[in-house]
Specification:
276 residues, alpha/beta, Rossmann fold, 2 domains, three-stranded antiparallel beta sheet, globular
Length: 276
């Protein structure tokens, strides 16, 4: 059975409905990604066609909560790209956390939580977790609620265990989660120093004094205009000398970006905010 196809006019009308009813602006999201997600939502919720989706965006607040959850990008597994996590454990975190003081990490879009859980587990293994404050954001309250509960997709646990073992050969991932009624839950102690915040698609109200932003594999979902706006916003949030980690296949490349960021981890795409 073929998936319902969203046309250009339908896409514009959906974007207009979201802006009018909820004051959220998705117009600078990558068109292919946004169109694909809209088609998925129409099919999943048996909405028949785009006009039904538009009507529900306008009139059904509970559906719109589900809609925002579906728009979010899922991380899919713990310790994705093990080479990055080995670098963070062996070089990055020992360097940035060697002094005193607090260290704030911001996750602008936490989605399914695996990236957040991975950082918390790593810092616990390194006995550094109590030194770190987390600010955890999402456009979806439902996503935030699920991450607050520490929910894990247990269908991914075989991959999660394999990734974990590549980094922590002497430890066991089992000690960091439990399974209840076919749902996985991260140890709640890992989530103690976390502030959860509902954020819009432009991150206008960003946290202050951030020393690391984890924003991996996100840029491909935005057009160049929005990429630049977000990267500029992140630059204002990060303290001089702080870091931004983007996906291994992504790079910061906008006009004058060299005045904002310098690449310090080429293999892992880790950027540092310039001091001046």
């Amino acid at each position: 059975m073929s998936r319902y196809e969203i046309g250009i006019v339908d896409t514009r009308n959906i974007l207009k409905a979201i802006k009018e009813s909820h004051d959220l602006d998705f117009k600078n999201h990558a068109l292919t990604f946004f169109k694909r997600r809209m088609e998925y939502i129409v099919d999943r919720y048996n909405l028949k066609h785009a006009d039904v989706l538009i009507d529900k965006i306008h009139s059904d607040p509970e559906f719109f909560r589900l809609f925002l959850r579906e728009v979010c990008i899922e991380t899919t597994e713990l310790f994705r790209d093990p080479s990055l996590w080995r670098y963070l454990m062996d070089q990055f975190f020992p360097s940035v956390l060697k002094g005193g003081g607090s260290y704030k990490i911001w996750f602008p879009e936490v989605s399914s939580g695996e990236e957040l859980y991975s950082v918390a587990i790593m810092l616990r293994e390194m006995k550094l977790l109590d030194r770190v404050q987390f600010v955890v954001g999402s456009i979806s309250q439902m996503r935030l609620d699920e991450v607050k509960q520490g929910k894990l997709d247990i269908s991914k646990m075989e991959v999660n265990h394999a990734n974990f073992k590549r980094i922590f050969s002497e430890a066991e991932l089992d000690s960091y989660y439990t399974v209840e009624k076919e749902t996985g839950y991260i140890n709640p102690d890992l989530l103690r120093n976390m502030e959860f915040t509902l954020q819009n698609t432009y991150y206008d109200k960003h946290p202050r004094s951030v020393k690391l932003i984890m924003w991996r594999n996100q840029m491909l979902y935005f057009n160049q205009i929005l990429q630049e706006r977000l990267l500029k916003s992140f630059c204002h949030a990060i303290v001089p000398g702080g870091h931004l980690i983007v996906g291994m296949n992504e790079k910061i490349d906008y006009w004058n970006s060299g005045k904002d960021y310098i690449l310090v981890g080429e293999n892992e795409n880790i950027y540092k905010k310039r001091f001046s």
